[in-house]
Amino acid sequence: MSEALARIAAALERISPPRAAAPDFDRSDAFVWTVEPDRLQPVPKVSRVDLSLLIGVERARNTLLENTRQFAKGLPANNALLWGARGMGKSSLVKAVHAQILTEGLPLKIVELQREDLPSVTRLLAELRQSAARFVLFCDDLSFSHDDEHYKSLKAVLDGGIEGRPENVIFYATSNRRHLMPRDMIENERSSAINPGEAVEEKVSLSDRFGLWLGFHPCTQDDYLAMIHGYCAHFGIGFDPEELRADAIEWQATRGARSGRVAWQYVTDLAGRKGIRLD
Fold it and tell me: Which of 51, 83, 91, 259 could serve as 87's disulfide partner, Cβ 3.0–4.6 Å?
């Protein structure tokens, strides 16, 4: 009998493991939220670029930096949605702004949350609410499909339900989509629903809950070349201006696009050819 009870107790513990110890937020300025079991994993070194190297997004950079600075000081600030063209530095900007705030001596933590883990966000907010620290909750590449119910969990961050969003938490998300879902899905629901307006209003209005909308658009050739020059200067890569221009334009032509990501990929290739490490 005792053996059977022990097996039942063990099975129940596997189904509902004991609550993890409270995280030590003094261990790091950056964390990743994981589930099964719930845990805030410290990140010893964040992968990011210097804020000065993000070229062609000055308006978004300045707006997000000031919003984050206000929040770090305990002043009112808005949740932010960074949307638009791929490879234009949306997620890089969030991480670079966090680093800049730290250099200004303002204490601020950043917590990365995966889109797949949005259903656990209420538990995460309960953890963060208990801390005296201030947190940027960051979700990269956020979007929803027609049968995706995760967007309902996101409302817990943006609206906070009956408790309200924790005063010490702000939410930043990046997405290639302005309304967080494909345009053809919106049009399909509008055309096939009995009440077209109500069919999409709940999902489309989700993006309206972000106080800041920061758009990122494909860069010009001049911006693309300026990005490359900035990287070369930062990493000490010497170059002939005319040769670099022709080589960089040929590189982007083979990719069929210009963006900050393509500029970085070119600089990575150039540094490798010249035997220079990008530390």
Answer: 259
Its sign, for the CA torsion 43, 58, 255, 268, is negative
Q: Tell me how far CA of residue 89 lies from CA of 105, 119, 261, in angstroms.
A: 24, 27, 7
Classified as helix, coil or strand, 44 is coil
Question: What average pLDDT does range 166-187 have in this prediction?
Answer: 76
- Which pTM does this prediction carry? 0.82
Nearest to 30 by CA among 104, 107, 105, 86: 107
Closest CA to 54 of 222, 226, 241: 226
For 46-101, how does the pLDDT look when each residue is reduced to its tens digit (9 = 90+)? 988 999 999 989 999 999 999 999 999 999 999 999 998 889 999 999 999 999 99
Backbone angles phi, psi at 246, to 5 degrees: -65, -40
Coil, strand or helix: which one is 161? coil
Strand order, beta sheet including 30-34: 39-42, 30-34, 109-112, 135-139, 169-175, 80-84, 212-216
Residues 266, 268: Cα–Cα separation, whole Å: 5
pLDDT value at position 26?
86
Query: Is it true that the peptide bond before 37 is cis, omega within 30 degrees of 0?
Result: yes
Contact call for residues 151 and 127 (beta carbons, < 8 A): no
| Token reading at 209 | 């809950």
Q: Which residues of 162-194 are buried (b: 16+ CB within 10 A; e: fewer)?
A: eeebbebbbbbbbbbbebbbeeebbeebeeeee
Query: If you average pLDDT over residues 218-230, what whole number do you get?
Result: 94
Band of pLDDT at residue 176, cut at 50, 70 and 90: confident
